[in-house]
């Protein structure tokens, strides 16, 4: 269990746990199931990427430390469903055209972004333009989650939908994984329900929500471990694709 040391303030520790939760996070994290499962999948595939990497829709770059690359460039749209006060954006773009020359990058990381893009064909074509032929792309998209970053939340993609979109726009799918499974999704949605109900009351509400979230996380982890792992309902698509 990684606990904050003297050189790691509590705030930094909790911020990291928000996207890269360890087992300790089960005691308080309202999104424990979905974030932990996604983190494990990204960590698994991150070593496949090398060279100059483009993080499209980078936000706070919560997974940058998982990649060993020559350069790491984060790009994001300036207007969106969230502010960028805590973001670590290197380059802003206008939502349509990336300000880079053709074939500028060797790799792409794009996590939980395409659901916020109204015209994915347009953006995937633009992303393909700035990637060199043979570049690898690690892309994740949610399949089961509530509306967020409202009103800029436009779609949920099945594994078949994502494979179709990528092939249509010049990518070959090398690997397609799913994070989570039916039982874990059910427990996560239960915890999410209480978080959404109480968060409107500020910090006091979030603390009150923990009365429900902590036992859901603990009991859910135990029960989900022994139930059949049906994956017709899951959290995220995690795709490793190659630019053709």
Question: What is this structure's SSE topology?
Answer:
Layout: H1 10-19, H2 32-45, E1 52-56, E2 71-77, E3 91-93, E4 105-111, H3 120-130, E5 131-142, H4 159-168, E6 171-179, H5 182-198, H6 202-226, E7 236-243
Parallel strand pairs: 1-2, 1-4, 2-3, 4-5
Antiparallel strand pairs: 5-7, 6-7
Helix pairs in contact: 5-6
Task: Report on the architecture of this protein.
Helix 5 packs antiparallel against helix 6. This protein has helices at residues 10-19, 32-45, 120-130, 159-168, 182-198, 202-226; strands at residues 52-56, 71-77, 91-93, 105-111, 131-142, 171-179, 236-243. By secondary structure, the protein is of the alpha/beta class. Mean pLDDT is 93; it is low at 1-7. It has a seven-stranded mixed sheet with strand order 3-2-1-4-5-7-6. Strand 4 (105-111), helix 3 (120-130) and strand 5 (131-142) form a beta-alpha-beta unit. The radius of gyration is 18 Å and the shape is globular. The protein has one domain: Rossmann fold (3-Layer(aba) Sandwich). 36% of the residues lie in helices and 21% in strands.
